[in-house]
Amino acid sequence: MPGRRLPVLAEISAPRPGESGAWSLRRDDFEALAKVRERIDRHRVVVVTGSEGIVAGAALAVAGAASAAGRRTALLECELAQPTVAAGVGLAPTPGLHEYLRWEVAAPQVLQPLVLAGPAARGAVEPLVCVVAGRPAADAPALLESESFRHATAKLGAAYELTVVVAPSLEYENGSLEAVAARGDALLACVGPERTSGREQRRLRRALKRLSAPALGTLVVAAPGEPQRS
Q: What is the pLDDT of residue 6?
């Protein structure tokens, strides 16, 4: 990775504020994610990180596109300090990974199906399975470094053809991201169009260098009405 630019694998649009059914899959985004699906095809556990505020949406797009293409897919939210997935797609906020890691619930209780909508979702053979973060956790780093977390990711990796992991953003410095990245076998970085310049790319490579999973490339997420990269 040092000395070379991370490839931009796809450019997609972020959901509009207040948009219902945020992950009814748009056909344009589904087609744009084709190159991402090709890159992750050989991997079982793909960790998604990047700029704060867009990681969960990007991970949902990747997981949704894989599921819509017929791959049995699970989404695992590991942003335990500030969960966002459940509220964004209308799932129950608990129980989730937090409760499972504290041995408060069994594995089947945290699996929630998310039925994709939209014309691009017709290839899905079954719903996308989601494990949301659960209630916010003040001790997220300790939970994510536990044997219970390693066991949880191993079980999902064995049960599904692909597990897409919503990791903390690159701005976090509390060790949570490193612990999550260690459980993946590949990494995707999601950024806004403003972070695709040469200087920003160098900063991104430095941030990713500390993580153990190899980076496959970047996913550019543009806000509604925001121009994509030139």
A: 84
